[in-house]
Amino acid sequence: MTALRLALYLYFARWLPGSEMPGGKLARQIRRAITAPLFAETGKAIHIERGAYFGRGNQIRIGSRSAIGVRCELHGPVTIGDDVMMGPNVAIHATNHAFTDLARPMIEQGFSESARVTIGNDVWIGRGAIILPGVTIGDHTIIAAGAVVTKDVEPYKMAGGNPARVIGDRRERAAN
């Protein structure tokens, strides 16, 4: 049943209209119904957008009211908290290519051990951001569009750039 559900998503539901397009609300409901059982764990009212890719989904946990954006890619073990927004083309990678054996080409070395990516609650990840293995993004954080996140980001911080660095604190912005 899982293989059939995955095939139904990959070859049909993945390409239904996006949420903002005519028929998008129904397409969103269809994607949710097909994909929710594929994930290791899901909260209520998850949102899987058009073109999203997540492998088999069995290593992904996604919290309530969280979204995987248009054409986003999730690879390896990933935990997404509640109320997470993801812009288009976000890439989250929990594995990397192995490269430590200098006597063999990297293409023959396979992959490194997975390092879970954890995204807290109430996080906004901007368009085209890349999050690398083992990173934890704290609650209430904003990751700027195009950021390459190589290290943990503390709660309430705003991070951007390549490599990403803290560029602000939401609490300071809220105080003004």
TrEMBL record:
InterPro entries given in the database record: Hexapep (IPR001451), Hexapep_transf_CS (IPR018357), Hexapeptide_acetyltransf (IPR051159), Trimer_LpxA-like_sf (IPR011004)
PROSITE patterns: HEXAPEP_TRANSFERASES (PS00101)
Taxonomic superkingdom: Bacteria
Signal peptide range in chain numbering: none
UniProt GO MF annotations: transferase activity
Keywords: Repeat, Transferase
Stored Pfam families: Hexapep, Hexapep_2
Protein name as annotated: Acetyltransferase
